[in-house]
Design goal:
This is CRISPR-associated endoribonuclease Cas2. The chain is about 30% helix and about 25% strand. About 15% of the residues are buried. Helix 1 packs antiparallel against helix 2. The protein is built from two helices and four strands. It is of the alpha+beta class. The chain has a four-stranded antiparallel β-sheet with strand order 2-3-1-4, covered by helices on one side.
Length: about 100
Protein backbone atom coordinates (compact mmCIF):
# COMPACT_ATOMS: atom_id res chain seq x y z
CA UNK A 1 0.00 0.00 0.00
CA UNK A 2 1.10 3.58 -0.54
CA UNK A 3 1.37 5.71 2.57
CA UNK A 4 2.00 9.42 2.40
CA UNK A 5 3.87 10.70 5.46
CA UNK A 6 4.09 14.36 6.36
CA UNK A 7 5.83 15.78 9.38
CA UNK A 8 6.53 19.04 11.12
CA UNK A 9 9.33 19.00 13.69
CA UNK A 10 9.88 22.03 15.91
CA UNK A 11 13.50 22.92 15.27
CA UNK A 12 13.52 25.86 17.69
CA UNK A 13 13.35 23.52 20.67
CA UNK A 14 16.28 21.68 22.17
CA UNK A 15 17.16 18.70 20.00
CA UNK A 16 14.76 19.69 17.22
CA UNK A 17 17.33 19.59 14.41
CA UNK A 18 18.46 16.14 15.52
CA UNK A 19 14.86 14.85 15.63
CA UNK A 20 14.23 16.33 12.18
CA UNK A 21 17.21 14.47 10.69
CA UNK A 22 16.21 11.22 12.42
CA UNK A 23 12.63 11.42 11.14
CA UNK A 24 13.85 12.04 7.58
CA UNK A 25 16.33 9.15 7.79
CA UNK A 26 13.68 6.69 9.00
CA UNK A 27 11.30 7.80 6.24
CA UNK A 28 14.06 7.37 3.63
CA UNK A 29 14.49 3.78 4.80
CA UNK A 30 10.90 3.07 3.80
CA UNK A 31 10.27 5.31 0.80
CA UNK A 32 11.20 8.36 -1.21
CA UNK A 33 11.12 12.06 -0.41
CA UNK A 34 8.70 13.89 -2.70
CA UNK A 35 8.83 17.27 -0.94
CA UNK A 36 10.81 18.68 2.00
CA UNK A 37 8.77 17.07 4.76
CA UNK A 38 6.74 14.63 2.67
CA UNK A 39 7.53 11.01 1.84
CA UNK A 40 5.78 8.37 -0.24
CA UNK A 41 6.31 4.88 1.16
CA UNK A 42 5.16 1.61 -0.34
CA UNK A 43 4.83 -0.73 2.62
CA UNK A 44 2.86 -3.71 3.82
CA UNK A 45 0.84 -3.67 7.07
CA UNK A 46 3.75 -4.93 9.20
CA UNK A 47 6.19 -2.39 7.77
CA UNK A 48 3.63 0.38 8.27
CA UNK A 49 3.25 -0.54 11.94
CA UNK A 50 7.04 -0.60 12.39
CA UNK A 51 7.40 2.73 10.62
CA UNK A 52 4.82 4.41 12.84
CA UNK A 53 6.44 3.02 15.99
CA UNK A 54 9.92 4.17 14.91
CA UNK A 55 8.72 7.68 14.10
CA UNK A 56 6.66 7.99 17.25
CA UNK A 57 9.70 7.09 19.34
CA UNK A 58 11.66 9.97 17.75
CA UNK A 59 9.29 12.91 17.84
CA UNK A 60 8.27 15.07 20.76
CA UNK A 61 4.48 14.77 20.68
CA UNK A 62 4.08 18.05 22.56
CA UNK A 63 5.80 20.10 19.82
CA UNK A 64 6.07 17.93 16.68
CA UNK A 65 3.48 16.51 14.29
CA UNK A 66 3.20 13.40 12.09
CA UNK A 67 0.46 12.65 9.56
CA UNK A 68 -0.09 9.36 7.75
CA UNK A 69 -2.32 9.16 4.69
CA UNK A 70 -3.06 5.59 3.61
CA UNK A 71 -3.73 5.60 -0.12
CA UNK A 72 -3.96 1.81 -0.41
CA UNK A 73 -2.89 -0.52 -3.19
CA UNK A 74 -4.78 1.27 -5.96
CA UNK A 75 -2.88 4.51 -5.38
CA UNK A 76 -1.87 5.17 -9.00
CA UNK A 77 -5.39 6.43 -9.71
CA UNK A 78 -5.26 8.72 -6.65
CA UNK A 79 -1.97 10.56 -7.20
CA UNK A 80 -1.55 13.36 -9.74
CA UNK A 81 1.67 15.31 -10.11
CA UNK A 82 2.25 18.70 -11.71
CA UNK A 83 5.62 20.44 -11.90
CA UNK A 84 9.19 19.47 -11.13
CA UNK A 85 10.59 16.62 -9.05
CA UNK A 86 8.65 13.81 -10.66
CA UNK A 87 8.80 10.81 -8.34
CA UNK A 88 10.22 7.45 -9.36
CA UNK A 89 7.85 4.51 -9.68
CA UNK A 90 9.54 2.10 -7.28
CA UNK A 91 7.33 -0.76 -8.45
CA UNK A 92 8.25 -0.37 -12.12
CA UNK A 93 10.82 -2.69 -13.70
CA UNK A 94 14.40 -1.60 -13.10
CA UNK A 95 16.42 -1.49 -16.31
CA UNK A 96 20.19 -1.10 -16.26
Amino acid sequence: MLVLITYDVNTTSSGGQKRLRKVAKVCQNYGQRVQNSVFECIVDATQFTSLKLELRSIIDESTDSLRFYQLGNNYKNKVNHIGTKESIDVEAPLIF
